[in-house]
Design goal:
alpha+beta, 2 domains, 4-stranded mixed β-sheet, 4 strands, globular
């Protein structure tokens, strides 16, 4: 069974795994069950693929079901999402932080959510760095997708570049927090 550190990690994992039959990326789960089994919190999601109708199901052990998003876990790296996959998710989230001129409060709120995800995914990549290592080790990339992202540009996973990226993403989050607060006051 898949072990997720938080509910947000369950959702990210499902976003990364399209329908095996037709490749549809969207999974509009319609059934969510949460239960205790053998002293562990189990969270399962079930629904039909909107493109081909294939019944899909994901089941996770959730280590901390009360950890609020965008946090994905404690100091340990994920065992179900690799650094390359986090990189892709982070790039997509960072792109969604860009606001058009005259953005509406809803657009600002969506960008703020995305900024939190962009920072969180970069924090997650950094968890794969062993102490003192200059870059995320090759063996941390366990998925085909993640290995492809690394192969395309290994420098993305150097400690210094990741730390600079995180600083920039946190700066964007602070700016968007100010805008959200302006709309709320």
């Amino acid at each position: 069974m898949l072990v997720a550190r938080a509910m947000a990690e369950c959702h990210m994992y499902m976003d990364l795994h399209p329908c095996e039959r037709c490749g549809e990326p969207y999974f509009p789960w319609t059934v969510h069950e949460a239960a205790e089994r053998d002293g562990q919190r189990i969270s399962s999601y079930e629904g039909d693929c909107p493109a081909c109708g294939t019944r899909r199901r994901f089941e996770f052990v959730v280590l901390d079901p009360n950890l609020p998003p965008p946090a994905l876990g404690g100091p340990e790296p994920s065992t179900i999402i690799d650094p390359g996959e986090f990189y892709e998710l982070g790039e997509s989230a960072a792109e969604a932080t860009k606001l058009p001129g005259g953005a509406s409060p809803e657009q600002v709120g969506d960008a703020w959510d995305a900024a939190g995800d962009a920072a969180a995914t970069t924090e997650e990549i950094l968890k794969f760095l062993p102490p003192g290592a200059a870059a995320v080790p090759v063996e941390a990339f366990t998925s085909e997708r993640g290995r492809a992202v690394r192969t395309a540009d290994p420098s993305r996973f150097g400690r210094e570049r990741l730390e600079l990226t995180l600083a920039e993403r946190r700066r964007v989050l602070v700016e968007l927090t100010r805008l959200v607060e302006q709309y709320e006051s």
